[in-house]
Amino acid sequence: MKFDQLRRSKLNNWTIVHLRYLVGLAFFPSGMTKLIGHRFTSISTDNPIGYFFEALYQSGFYWNFLGVAQITAGILLMTQRFALLGTLIFFAIITNIWIITLSLSFTGTWVITSLMMIAVIIILIWDHHKLIPLVSNKKDLVIKHFPPVDKIWIIAGISYTICFTFLSLFNPMMEETSGLLTAILLGLIFLTFMVSNYIYFKNRKKIL
């Protein structure tokens, strides 16, 4: 089956859209932790992993910058419309993290980062046609046009972004109301998922 046929498949589009959501979500907790200036781990500095993260934490603004970069990549992926830019930023960051988890022998973490690497590569392959003009000098090159992202996914991405931001930012700092807030936000996430998918699959003839 040709790439353009795969690209126009409703199921394939649904899979990529939600893979972007999943990958984008992965950076929110750790990114927000760095952005607000908290330590990412409590591992002792006697351990090479703990020493490494403590050194990053003590770097000051660079620690916050890492958080900004992760959150930015996550938000761009969640928007769907600017997902390619988010994917490129995410790819640069996750490649660095992947190498770190391998070199420092993180127990089990390298499996997670490897899966994230595979996911982001799949997303890059999906949008590779948008990158062709950057690496090709052919004047007669024709890039096929594919339908834009459905607005329902953009709206859903905004909802997910707001919910994940509040979950990552405020939940760790709240005590009495944290349980209620978490329940409300998780409810909104579930509602967003159900409504967006219902609207999308309701019209089966419509191509994303």
Automatic annotation (TrEMBL):
Keyword Transferase carried by entry: no
Keywords: Membrane, Transmembrane, Transmembrane helix
Transmembrane portions of the chain: 21-40, 60-77, 82-101, 107-126, 152-174, 180-201
UniProt keyword Lipid metabolism, yes or no: no
UniProt protein name: DoxX family protein
